[in-house]
Amino acid sequence: MNITVLALDGVFDTGLAIVLDALATANELSALQAWPGPPFQVSVVGTRRRVKSALGMGVPVLRAVDCPPPDLVIVPALGYKMPDALQQALDRPDVAEAAAALRDWADAGTRIAAACIGTFVLAESGLLNQHDATTTWWLAPLFRQRYPGVRLDTSHMIVNSGQFVTAGAAFSHIDMTLWLIRQTSPELAALVASYLVVDSRPSQSAYIIADHLSHADPLVERFDRWARAHLDKGFRLDDAASELATSKRTLARRIREVLGKTPVSYVQDLRIERAVHLLKTSTNSVDRIADMVGYADGVTLRTLLRRRLGKGIREIKRA
Q1: The pTM is what?
Q2: Phi and psi of 203, rounded to 5°?
Q3: pLDDT score at 119
Q4: What's the Cα-to-Cα distance from 252 to each of 181, 263, 303, rounded to whole Å?
Q5: Structural domains in the chain plus CATH codes
């Protein structure tokens, strides 16, 4: 398989290294085990003759225009972690050229995978429109605002949408690369994971800090504070909207844009989060904790906790 790794100026050093190291390890282990099949042929390409990483290291690259369409393109992250700096980077001419190259490769049938902030570069091409995707969780509000045509789901670490594969935050580069190796050889992917000591992480949910996301919008931040203060009471969107001096429609729309879920779903997440914390840190019974987080009885809380646990198990089995 011919693989092109697209490295742009400011490429995230760790992301680029993880992809290259995992593929090199796969080639070494495949040769060691004398497994059939050719090795991965990996080239690092750029839209400029000279590319520097986010930490200022030179990255030897081939020019994208000089390379034939590969079987697979991998887009590592750019090293811009905050919205303002990232938006400036995405407006650069070399990113526009990268987006054009991605469209050309896609037209030629090339599969394209992107991780973390690399998903923004792929989304700039327009190729993700009307496709399912994930991205780095703390930049989800910016992603939804900038690419409304993409069906974003940040709960997953990997989202496979046919020709396009996207992965979540920073270290999802290894999850994505192992997933790609697994498409060729599940046994080889498992061996690479063992040698690199990588656990299965099918979901980003455990890493998402809801409080961080809520700060992306003043109205959502106020809703978050109000909801946390009223978890022990029944939730009504009318009450929340009235308290925050806005309409139900505006509140629901802003929560959907920032958090990617409905107000009711978000409040339920907060209740489960609080319940799990109380179960770990207090001596209260499940029935008492259920009352403290707004559920009628312990049976309801136990059912929701089992569903949450069961969902995690199913995601692990699918990975």
Answers
A1: 0.73
A2: -130, 145
A3: 98
A4: 41, 6, 26
A5: 2-207 (3.40.50.880), 210-318 (1.10.10.60)
